[in-house]
Design a protein that fits this description.
By secondary structure, the chain is α/β, with parallel strands linked by helices. The protein has helices at residues 5-14, 16-19, 27-33, 54-63, 76-85, 99-105, 125-138, 157-169; strands at residues 44-48, 68-73, 90-93, 111-116, 139-150, 170-175, 186-194. It has a seven-stranded mixed β-sheet, with helices on both faces. Helix 3 (27-33) crosses helix 4 (54-63), helix 6 packs parallel to helix 7 and helix 7 (125-138) runs parallel beside helix 8.
């Protein structure tokens, strides 16, 4: 258990459909999902649903002070804690479905990488489509979208629908290895070249 576990459990109890998990993601999953963040240049990295910051820390390690990191979190408790722990990250309390508008308001360029910690299997179809549409609208040419799924949830209807949605929107969807040490075990989707813009 990490020091973030009590906070995560409390938020899951209050907001199960937007928190989506009872424990924060582990370091190995964080490393896998952030592998697309460039180690050179000054990329724009957008993080959706950062929660207590398991992926935020890994993104910051890869950026090492370069580029711009914007984290979009709808939960006020998570957003406040994240901003306090990561003052260099631009934490925005907003709905992920408004991502394209958020970048436009800030006059930010297209995102190089969008990393998602959102609980896709907990969302209805229209919510999945709305958020993914906003992601595609913000990705630059050559941009990468990464997200994860819990291994046990893969056979469920929402998870299968989300996978079909990904393959219908991106030219390349690569499924990473299962991270068995994560609780629960999870795998990463690496998505490239949006088909519809």
């Amino acid at each position: 258990m990490t020091s973030d576990t009590p906070t995560f459990l409390a938020q899951f109890a209050r907001h199960p459909l937007t928190t989506g998990a009872v424990l924060p993601s582990g370091a190995t999953l964080a490393r896998d999902i952030t592998a697309a963040v460039p180690r050179v240049g000054h990329p724009l990295v957008v993080e959706l649903g950062p929660g207590t910051g398991a992926f935020t820390r890994a993104i910051q390690e890869r950026l090492a002070g370069r580029g711009h990191h914007m984290a979009v979190e709808v939960n006020p408790a998570f957003a406040t804690g994240l901003a306090r722990r990561h003052p260099i990250v631009e934490v925005v309390r907003a709905d992920a479905a408004t991502l394209d508008a958020l970048l436009a308001e800030r006059q930010l360029p297209s995102a190089d990488v969008v990393v998602s910690g959102l609980p896709w299997a907990a969302f209805p179809a229209d919510r999945q489509r709305a958020i993914l549409h906003a992601v595609v609208a913000t990705l630059g040419r050559g941009g990468v979208f990464t997200t994860f799924a819990y291994r046990h949830a893969l056979p469920t209807r929402p998870a299968r629908r989300f996978h079909r949605l990904l393959t219908g929107v991106f030219d390349e969807v690569t499924v990473g290895r299962t991270v068995w040490t994560n609780l629960p075990p999870a795998l990463v989707y690496h998505c490239r070249r949006p088909l519809h813009r």
